[in-house]
Design brief:
Length: 455
């Protein structure tokens, strides 16, 4: 395939050229390349690396409910939104299980279903010598990142966090974590329950910004004692938490990376007071409007490295209704795997908040580097996988659930106007999406064996 005359942008550069693709790989980039086969005319269009979403929850079983996208519907939705690779945060297994229990399970959930390339972050439920030894094995199998939680059923103690960070540093793996202070949340939930304060806004009030900031601070201080452990903060939601990261960096801590998500850039806590407030129950919760702006500033100032989604969908009319009388009974999470690239492109690039290169970096290149997939993924270079999206800047549309492929009955971004239109998603040289239609076979996605992070 030849992609002709597009405005190519990478994280570093913007230029007009043709891209020749052979066997799924970028073979040549240059001017006036002749080719007798399939040609896409990309004149006046942006030609960009496919987006990478390093935080999805396909098939996630949270006990009271199961996320409604599996690896087929979820990756079709991802592809239709311009994402060509995902890394899924795998769910917890039975108490005491070893790391491979869940990794093996997720390989079988994804294989034969995923339509774009994929990987998994391992999940830590407890620490002992066997688990620490197993980390090296999963690293050698291409799973070079792992997540721990500071709340929920399998949260780690500070003692275990120390041990784990020491080990991931030794192995050169990336540690990711869900930062929330469990004790405070537990107390506030109990208090609100006793006071019969059970509407969705109390979900937000039970998980204040300080809970997130404190948990991040604790982990960064532990990292500082050990010394510059590569650390990745998932779904950062507010500026107090970001200040903690900035302070730690100013005090000399290196290798701390921050992810935020579109929900914390576009939505705010006022939504919890609407009658459909259950749609927005997620953790961490939405914050006030000022935080939206401060997080955009964090992106502009390079304090935040990655935008991912934390895609974790539950239908509003089914699963979310479990929380109708009591927010604590509502499954946590919201969809977003399909809408992220164009939301960020529209508000970021088209409204001149960020450059096209910054867009590529934050949605594709940095995630590829931090999670060991670069330069196979995350860039347009000779030798890279031909994972490419083509965007027309002269079209506008509105997000509506009716045009999305996510397997869920709502979008938190309903009616948001999008400047620009995704024309093509190309994965390893195949057009997999054209004009919002998925064109390829179920199961064509491949597991990506990842290297250690490029810091
Ligand atoms: O509410 C959320 N974010 N659910 C998904 C699991 C997690 O904490 O990332
Ligand atoms: Zn989380
Ligand atoms: Zn998550």
């Amino acid at each position: 395939m030849l992609i002709k005359n597009g405005n190519i942008a990478t994280a570093f550069d913007t230029f007009k050229a043709d891209i020749l693709i052979e066997n799924g790989i970028i073979k040549e980039i240059g001017k006036n390349i002749d080719y007798a086969g399939e040609v896409i005319d990309a004149t006046d269009k942006f030609v960009l690396p496919g987006a990478i979403d390093v935080h999805t929850h396909f098939d996630l079983d949270v006990g009271i409910a199961k996320a409604t996208d599996d690896f087929f519907t979820g990756t079709v939705a991802a592809a239709c939104g311009g994402t060509t690779t995902i890394i899924d945060h795998i769910g917890f297994g039975p108490s005491g299980c070893h790391l491979h229990h869940q990794i093996d399970k997720y390989h079988s959930l994804a294989k034969g279903k995923a339509v774009i390339d994929y990987s998994f972050h391992g999940v830590i439920q407890h620490i002992n010598d066997d688990i620490l030894d197993e980390l090296e094995k999963i690293k050698n199998e291409g799973i070079t990142s792992i997540k721990f939680y500071m709340t929920y059923d399998y949260m780690l103690s500070d003692y275990d966090i120390y041990k784990l960070l020491e080990k991931t540093k030794e192995l050169g793996m990336m540690i990711t974590f869900h930062p929330e202070n469990d004790g405070v949340i537990k107390y506030l939930k109990e208090k609100f329950r006793k006071e019969n304060k059970l509407t969705p806004i109390y979900h937000a009030k039970s998980r204040p910004e300080e809970c997130e900031a404190e948990a991040i601070n604790r982990v960064l201080m532990i990292s500082s004692i050990i010394g510059d452990v590569p650390i990745y903060v998932v779904h950062l939601s507010n500026s107090l938490a970001l200040e903690v990261v900035k302070n730690a960096r100013e005090n000399g801590l290196n290798n701390v990376f921050v992810e935020t998500c579109p929900q914390y850039l576009f939505l705010n806590e006022d939504l919890y007071n609407q009658k459909d407030g259950l749609k927005y129950i997620m953790s961490p919760p939405l914050r006030n409007k000022k935080n939206n702006d401060l997080l955009w500033e964090g992106i502009i100032n390079d304090d935040i490295q990655v935008i991912a989604t934390d895609h974790c969908p539950f239908n509003y009319n089914i699963e979310k209704q479990m929380g109708i009388k009591d927010f604590t009974k509502c499954p946590n999470g919201a969809p977003g795997v399909e809408t992220r690239p164009m939301l960020i492109f529209s508000k970021g690039v088209m409204e001149n908040k960020i450059s096209i290169n910054k867009f590529v970096d934050i949605c594709s290149t940095k995630p590829a580097k931090l999670f060991g997939m670069y330069p196979k993924k995350g860039t347009i270079e000779v030798g890279s996988d031909a994972d490419i999206i083509i965007i027309d800047t002269n079209s506008e549309s509105k997000i509506t659930v009716d045009n999305l492929h996510e397997n869920i009955d709502y979008s938190p971004y309903e009616n948001i106007k999008i400047k620009g239109k995704l024309l093509y998603t190309i994965s390893r040289g195949e057009i997999i999406v054209k004009d919002n239609e998925f064109l390829q076979e179920k199961g064509r996605g491949q597991f990506v064996k990842r290297e250690i992070p490029l810091l």
